[in-house]
Structure formats: C-alpha cells, structure tokens
Prior knowledge:
The structure holds two protein chains of two kinds. Chain A is α+β, with helices and mostly antiparallel strands.
Amino acid sequence: xxxxxxxxxxxxxxxxxxxxxxxxxxxxxxxxxxxxxxxxxxxxxxxxxxxxxxxxxxxxxxxxxxxxxxxxxxxxxxxxxxxxxxxxxxxxxxxxxxxxxxxxxxxxxxxxxxxxxxxxxxxxxxxxxxxxxxxxxxxxxxxxxxxxxxxxxxxxxxxxxxxxxxxx
Amino acid sequence: xxxxxxxxxxxxxxxxxxxxxxxxxxxxxxxxxxxxxxxxxxxxxxxxxxxxxxxxxxxxxxxxxxxxxxxxxxxxxxxxxxxxxxxxxxxxxxxxxxxxxxxxxxxxxxxxxxxxxxxxxxxxxxxxxxxxxxxxxxxxxxxxxxxxxxxxxxxxxxxxxxxxxxxxxxxxxxxxxxxxxxxxxxxxxxxxxxxxxxxxxxxxxxxxxxxxxxxxxxxxxxxxxxxxxxxxxxxxxxxxxxxxxxxxxxxxxxxxxxxxxxxxxxxxxxxxxxxxxxxxxxxxxxxxxxxxxxxxxxxxxxxxxxxxxxxxxxxxxxxxxxxxxxxxxxxxxxxxxxxxxxxxx
Lengths: 168, 345
C-alpha cells in the first residue's frame, strides 16, 4: 500500500498538531505560562501592569478552534498611573495589524467592579508555539490624552486569530 | 440481531423487517421477502433488493421436485432449465438437490459501508453536521434536537480544567471565522458553582457563553430530556433560541442580535458534543441525541440530518497518534438520532 505525499503531509500535520496540543495542555496544567505570572513580573515588553488577566476559561468554539476568555481586573499599576483620569479605553493589536477597541469605561467603575471587562479570544490549537502571534499589544487611551502600553501574552502560547473586549 | 421469522401459510406471504444497525457496520435493510413453501418441504425465497432487482433462493429442493417441475416452476425457483442430456441432467440434479439444504436468512442482510457517511476528525467536536465546510453561504437557517442530560461522576470546582457541552448550532466550520451560533447545555464550563448541566447560548468566538436567555439559575437533572430549537433570520441578523426541559415542562426562549465582528454563516448545521479545546473532557458516559434535524433555507423544509447528502460524521479525536475522545455512534434508522460515548478525557 502506498502513501501519497499529501497523506504523509496530512499525517505529519496531525501529529504536529497533537504534539502542540499536548504541549499546550501540559503547560497550562503546570501553570507555567499564565498571563498573571508573566505580566506581574517586570519584563522587556511589559513595563507596567494596568490590567491583570485571570486564568483562561476555555469554552465552546468553532470546528477545530479554541476559545478562551479572560476576566480582567485592575493591575498593580492601575491606580498609580491612572490617578486623575476619568475615562479609559483599551485597544489591542495582533501581529497581523488587526486592531480592536473596547468601549470607553470609567476608571473608577472598573476598579470597583461595577464595570467588568473580558478579553475574549479565538485561537489556533494547532499552533501553540508562542511568539508574536500569541501576543496582543495593548494600548490604553485616556481622556487626558495619556497613553500606556502593555502586552497580553496568551498563557497557552497558542496563536490568537481573533479577539475582542466585552464590557459587562 | 433481530430476526423476523416468516411462517407463511399462504404462498408468497410478505414479510417486512426493519433491523437496527449493528456495531459491526452490517445493516439489515427493510425489504420485501416473499417465501413459498413447497409441498415436499422445499422453500423458495424471493428477495427484493434496494436497487429494484430480485434474488431467488430455492432451498431444500427434493429430487422429485427438481425432476417433475415444469419449466415455469423451475424458473420461479431460480433453477436453470433441466438439461436434456442424461449426463448433464445427473450433474444438474446432483447440484441443485444438494445445494441450499437450509433455508436462507429470512431477512435481507446487506453489508454496508462501515463508514456510510463522510467522516472527519476534529479536536473538539463529535457528532454530526450537514453542509459544506469552509465556504460562506446561508444554506441552513435552523437546527433542532433533543438530548438526554447525562450523568457526571466528578465534582465541578472553580479550578476544574474539564468540561463538556452538548449543543446544536449553525456555522462554525469556515476556517475559524467568527460565525458560529449555538445553544446547548454545558458542564463546568460556564458555571463552575453548580454540579449540574446548565443551558447557554453563544455567538462564538465573539462572545463568551451566557446563561440561556438570562435564566441564570436554570439547571438540569440527570435524565431530563432537553429540546433545542435554534434559528437565525439573516434579514434582521437575529438568532432565536428556544429550549424546553420536556421532563419538567419548563421552557424558555429569547432572541439575540448578532454582535459586531460576528457574521452569520449557515454553511453547516450541526448536533455536537464538544470537548472544549484545552480542557479535559468530563466523563459523561453517554448522551443520546434524537430528532436532530436541520432546516434548509432555500425551501424552509426540515430534514433529518442523515438525509442530507452532505452529512458528515464528526469523530472527536485524531487519526495520529490515535486519540479518540468520544465515540460517535451511527445514525439510527430515522436518520436523526445517535449516541455519543465518552472514551477519553
């Protein structure tokens, strides 16, 4: 019985995908790459922590895709950097230049929990290799004109293909 | 395997048999089997095959019957004409008096393809879908199904990294586009505070699942029969959700406008048991889907999902390295029921 080139490629891809998923799951299980840990520590890309992202909550998704959402709280630098600022909006940008904005929300209402913000992501479970495609560059705009930056790195290191912010 | 034993008193009694699929992939199809009992103990069985042809099997024919039957009778028995040559006659008589010494099965058993549907593998879905993958169209505008709430043996806790969900949906099969609208029941996904299956709706992946029509305390007990009906109106971009617990009689419904950055794509309609990506599948034992039907937008007609030529059996797992998280059972004879079975977390 012969195996076609495309069959071999498909098998190779499937095996790679399965390995990737196993790595992702193991990493998640070990809590080795959570956003909280990464972003609460100073790093070259994350100079401030305005927002702190909760653990991913995985839920239902399209065929062969992943879907995770993250509850967001005020980070350690939130109060310090946003003192005197009333309104805030966060936008995110993927490596492919897709930009998504949250709604404007009250700085104090968010800190008190009256306004809730969720980062919702769709990801590629077959591509969990980290790198820029697993990172959303966040930019904060304020009503005072000040801007801030922070990176969100997907804790599962999977490539993010879509995301949006949900206000509740 | 169920058999129907036809005892015909009159000549050519008609026997109908409908046999469910077996696990081995051999199906006994409904067919007409006509049987004729001959005076000397012989039996003639005439099977009507699905393609319209017939097969005649004469069994237990005596040498007297073979020797004295008319040409018309031999034809009726499915026996070739009696040779004139004495040597050929002896061979002929020897052949047909010794063949078929037992009656054949009295129900037509046709081997069928063990994979009668197009089968695809998925890392997170198991079940059935109808439609064409990776295209944009609005073929399907509604889907409905019942399922029975399964039991779960472990506790759902805030830190639990396992879950599962049974749902019906439209779309979600176009290369990851944000176009899946769905409703169903989930365990330990949306609500980690109760050890029960809870209902939800979702525009995936643009939104996280939310409690069904905001009935936040609605939850189900093991064995409850849940009816789902989801439709989408493209002209207004509104999804209509309806769910009824047929065991208790409680029903809820609502409509939701589609969120921005989400677009409807009814290229497929599906009845799915999902192992959410990056979670472990909760051991739910089995869950039975019934009445899985899809509505074609072009003629506003409902079809059992198995009656769509585009139906695909979705196996939750990978061919390599050979992981299968769930078993997707065969579609029933009604083309709209199947059972999902937990295999691996």
